[in-house]
Please model this.
Amino acid sequence: MEEKNEVLVRYLGDLFSRLRIPPPLRKAMEYMVFSSGKRMRPVLVFATYESLKGDEGTDRLLPFASAIEMIHTYSLIHDDLPAIDNDDMRRGRPTCHKVFGEAIAILAGDALLTEAFRVITDKKLVKGLKPGVLNRIVFEIAKASGAEGMVGGQTFDIVLQGQRPSRRRLRLVHSLKTASLIRASVRTGAILAGARGFTMERLSKYATYVGLAFQMKDDLLDLVGREEIVGKRLRKDHGKQSLQYCFSLEEARRRLEGLVAEAERAIAPLELKTDLLFHIARFVAEREK
Amino acid sequence: MEEKNEVLVRYLGDLFSRLRIPPPLRKAMEYMVFSSGKRMRPVLVFATYESLKGDEGTDRLLPFASAIEMIHTYSLIHDDLPAIDNDDMRRGRPTCHKVFGEAIAILAGDALLTEAFRVITDKKLVKGLKPGVLNRIVFEIAKASGAEGMVGGQTFDIVLQGQRPSRRRLRLVHSLKTASLIRASVRTGAILAGARGFTMERLSKYATYVGLAFQMKDDLLDLVGREEIVGKRLRKDHGKQSLQYCFSLEEARRRLEGLVAEAERAIAPLELKTDLLFHIARFVAEREK
Model:
């Protein structure tokens, strides 16, 4: 997947270089997209497709993997803003608004979100794919990132601040804020591989568990991780629907293991061409950043 | 068009009411969408379609007109933010962040932008339209609102502050910030009416001039309008690429007339079923708010 990642970064660089846009906007967009993120979501697009169809012709996944990474990046830029999470560090570097100012950070987020939808409907970039497939993917990604998905989750995260934390509320936030776009990544890979019915249903289930596990691990790292490895300020979730008020560390780790096991169980009945998706589920739980 | 507007408002209300989302997010989205805007862009979607195809079956334009209005609204919410234009009043009411706080205003903008793309690819809402047509419209709208369109224009507006104003720079900002989404509105109506070639080219030209005229008039109102009619704080464009540094009032008014005349000339050779588009071009220049 390392190699895929490099191809993706080159592709994104090429996309941005072709945009005729004001230099500060370009720099702010590139700054965060090219920082050392895990690129979990594009990796899931590739891994899902390859699990079903093998390693051939994966270049045509690039616009979709890029679009999802752009949307993930926009969400980080906006979440870091002073009015929202007010974070100064991300991936070991100052956050976007610290470098470019708040106005440009807001606009860079807006641009990344909008360009994501342009990229996946640009005829020059998505040659040979059926328009019906493209529509399904636009819908899938928009629904996952919008009011009933990621943005809704971020809103709950804010409005539930100060309210008594509960496991139900924590799961709601995790599910919308994080799992929904991870689910859309897997489903996008699956749609492009022509998956339907049982396969699609199992992969969606897998993705939901992986997404929940991912955020559970994020919260755990916030509690016990090392700032110099994780690359951002930690232990700042006070007042939010946070893990620590709902589970002991021991319980949380057990719960995380449980989610990974559920993810694995979801795809166990499928005949997959690689065990990438199993590796990813493991990685999500074991990562140190 | 009054009647169309009421249908649109009901349709948008229905769209929002079906979203299962956190109440503050819903309220912030509705607050600005349902304020008394001119709804120029949806009106242009309808008027363009009707000019080519007549008044039948215009209900199927609703998702597209709604999406464009949602995108326009998100841009107002984000532009009004303290970090950008720092405006307190809009359409005679406190701006979104004044009522709901900055965090919710940022997220409501993000949600409106994202939901716009969901709405126009939601099978339940866009029945009977070819996927290829939907793709073209997603692309058209995304390109017009993104880094090479509206967001790019807003960025130029910020980064050119303090630089010597020039007519070329002013036109660049007007063209990207305002004309591009107005152009996408006309082209969306035209695409849905099956327009091509010469007709599409002429309508696009019309829309560009109407868009430039619209922003020219906005700048004029900023200089000579009455706050209680326009509904927002005026005479605040100092330091921006503003009309007043490039033209005398007399010149600006003549220039505005010239743009309207160009718009009319662009569509004069077309055989249109109504003169709505001519009326709209006139309205843009003559409006008092």
Observations:
- Chain B has 13 helices and two strands.
